[in-house]
Amino acid sequence: MKAMGLLESVIIIIVASAACGEVSTRVYLRDSNIPLKLADPCIPHIYQDIMVGTRLSIIVSSDTGGYWSGGLFLVDMNHNYGDLSCRDCNGIECGCSLFPAAGEGAGVLSWENDYLNGYIMNTTNDAIAGDWFIIDYLATNIGDCNVGVFDDNVSLELPVYEISFHQIRTRDFNGDGVVNFADLALFASYWQQTGCNGPGWCEGTDLDINGKVDANDLMLFCDYWLERTK
Ligand SMILES: [Ca+2]
Ligand SMILES: [Ca+2]
After folding, report:
1. What pTM was computed for the model?
2. Distance from residue 169's CA to the centre of ligand 1 (Å)
3. What is the C-alpha separation between 206 and 195, in angstroms, rounded?
């Protein structure tokens, strides 16, 4: 009798794990296959500092198939720090935010209210394991931005986890997507400049916004030498 009970428990656990696959996210620099590094490899979903203006892509994947619904949302004030956007194509809104593994008829839909701003997603019954959706992200402001990952199987109101970005002043002064000699040249043109003030801060070269462009700003600039924003 006891053995029978144990057997039943094992069967329930096996069935439950087969039914509850895991939906996960990966973050890349946009239009590349370069993954964004975690701040600490042992702590998931909290990424290394990124510069304002950085363009990323968030891929939603699953290790199981079948119907699923959820979404990616900026909750509450987070929309002051970042933007989510889907990919339109072939005249279909968000049409290119869907991967074939999400199934024929899967959907991505823009949705917002006073509290949430982002995208609802659903697969169909013929979805298979793999990459399902891609949503783009732009860091728009200095500060912390959290993107909520929602799984309707878990909660309709609270994210199952948040993807966290810490956003700092850009070193890509000319906005061409990479920190290199062109930015250094602009930095050099402001070297020892005083009287910098906001919002421009000497075209962004006064990185510690103390009014002058000096060795401390150079150090902050060099920390991101050859870093890319997309
Ligand atoms: Ca640049
Ligand atoms: Ca300074």
Report:
1. 0.87
2. 13
3. 10
